[in-house]
């Protein structure tokens, strides 16, 4: 690509953004590093339409980094419920504490220092530095990788380190000369990848709008737009089965806090058995287990607990439904068993907790469990704060 293209790229992209970019989003135009950081983390792996609803709510609940750092992690997870990828919420809380403790509550402007904070990678650090401090720092999220792979006809898989290094070098060269242009340029780059140079329907394919780079884009000139970036075929996601027990006693339901590094780490869920592979044999066993004995099931779910008294207090134990949940890299079938107790059973393990149904909104719940409780009409105000 010619030197003149590199020199003119930023200006042409900014010109495009004035006419065609996204404007008026609640996180745009922010120069507060905290507000920028929250939006960048929330927009990772989450659709813009969802963030449009949840970002203002999160900012109202935690308006600054000190408020977030001072909050209990359960409060943060509860506010994050439904957004998925809960490690982001845990990292947000940890990062907020780092900023308060190490930087007196002020985000550093140096991208290298930002990158040392919990949950902030190089691209996110670049975005925060560019938006909040007008630093000449590049970004390289999935959208930008796609733009550059097409513009420069990079045919090697983007997962290769040498390719990633090359993309970072290109992103550096394309930066505008003026640091004052960095917020607009960075937003323009994000918008161009999200709305015009999209994965499946880039504007150059439909021909309804004229891409500002159509005469320079090597993928367009060689008719490879939909072939780049090169896609690597993914292995089929593994499938698992588990049993979950919904124990109810009056207005209380039993929840268990999940280990921090597990799936749904740190959230409150229903007690569950080990996950087993959903092979045809295991699937058949699961389908035929609706009459399983209460003692055997409870021993399987409450591992290491003496459940003899619990079994006696269960007035019934019945299979209610099976729920399928799709994660990024796996699928899970949850067989839900419901039991009612005449009086509460006290567990010595502190990860178990009886929770008032009217206060479930104060707990971070996995989305399928939250929907399950709503569907069973266990609490009309699930998801509200009290």
TrEMBL record:
Classification via SMART domains: ENDO3c
Pfam families referenced in this protein's UniProt entry, alphabetically: HhH-GPD, NUDIX_4
Keyword GTP-binding: no
HhH-GPD domain span: 42-195
CDD domains reported in the protein's UniProt record: ENDO3c, NUDIX_DNA_Glycosylase_C-MutY
Catalytic activity field: Hydrolyzes free adenine bases from 7,8-dihydro-8-oxoguanine:adenine mismatched double-stranded DNA, leaving an apurinic site
Coiled-coil annotated residue ranges, if any: none
EC numbers: 3.2.2.31
Cofactor annotation: [4Fe-4S] cluster
EC class of the enzyme, as a word: hydrolase
InterPro entries, A to Z: A/G_AdeGlyc_MutY, DNA_glycosylase, HhH-GPD_domain, HhH_base_excis_C, MIG/MutY, MutY_C, NUDIX_hydrolase-like_dom_sf
Alphabetical keyword list: 4Fe-4S, DNA damage, DNA repair, Glycosidase, Hydrolase, Iron, Iron-sulfur, Metal-binding
Cofactor binding annotation: Binds 1 [4Fe-4S] cluster.
Record's function text: Adenine glycosylase active on G-A mispairs. MutY also corrects error-prone DNA synthesis past GO lesions which are due to the oxidatively damaged form of guanine: 7,8-dihydro-8-oxoguanine (8-oxo-dGTP).
Family: Belongs to the Nth/MutY family.
Name of this protein: Adenine DNA glycosylase
Origin species: Polynucleobacter paneuropaeus
Source species taxonomy: Bacteria, Pseudomonadati, Pseudomonadota, Betaproteobacteria, Burkholderiales
Name of the coding gene: mutY
């Amino acid at each position: 690509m010619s030197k003149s293209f590199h020199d003119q790229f930023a200006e042409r992209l900014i010109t495009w953004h004035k006419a065609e970019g996204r404007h008026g989003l609640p996180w745009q135009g922010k120069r507060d590093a905290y507000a920028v950081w929250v939006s960048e983390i929330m927009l990772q792996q989450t659709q813009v339409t969802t963030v449009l609803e949840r970002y203002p709510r999160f900012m109202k609940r935690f308006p600054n980094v000190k408020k977030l750092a001072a909050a209990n992690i359960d409060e943060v997870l509860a506010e994050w419920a439904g957004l998925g990828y809960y490690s982001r919420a845990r990292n947000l809380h940890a990062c907020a504490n780092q900023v308060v403790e190490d930087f007196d509550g002020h985000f550093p402007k140096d991208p290298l220092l930002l990158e040392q904070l919990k949950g902030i990678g190089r691209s996110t650090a670049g975005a925060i530095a560019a938006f909040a401090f007008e630093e000449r720092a590049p970004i390289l999220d999935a959208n930008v990788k796609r733009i550059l792979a097409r513009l420069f006809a990079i045919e090697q898989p983007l997962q290769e380190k040498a390719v990633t290094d090359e993309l970072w070098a290109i992103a550096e060269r394309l930066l505008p000369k003026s640091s004052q242009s960095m917020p607009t340029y960075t937003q323009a780059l994000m918008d161009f990848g999200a709305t015009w140079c999209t994965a499946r329907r880039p504007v150059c394919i439909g021909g309804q709008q004229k891409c500002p780079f159509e005469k320079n884009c090597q993928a367009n000139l060689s008719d490879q737009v939909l072939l780049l970036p090169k896609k690597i075929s993914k292995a089929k996601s593994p499938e698992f089965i588990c049993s979950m027990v919904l124990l109810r006693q009056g207005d209380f339901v039993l929840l268990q806090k999940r280990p921090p590094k597990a799936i749904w780490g740190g959230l409150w869920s229903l007690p569950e058995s080990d996950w087993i592979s959903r092979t045809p044999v295991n699937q058949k066993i699961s389908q035929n287990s609706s009459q399983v004995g209460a003692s055997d099931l409870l021993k399987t779910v409450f591992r290491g607990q003496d459940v003899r008294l619990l079994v006696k207090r269960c007035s019934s134990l019945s299979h209610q439904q099976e729920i399928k949940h799709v994660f990024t890299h796996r699928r899970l079938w949850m067989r839900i068993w419901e039991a009612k107790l005449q009086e509460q059973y006290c567990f010595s393990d502190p990860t178990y907790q009886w929770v008032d149904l009217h206060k479930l909104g104060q707990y971070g719940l996995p989305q399928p469990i939250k929907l399950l409780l709503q569907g069973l009409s266990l609490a009309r105000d699930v998801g509200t704060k009290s």
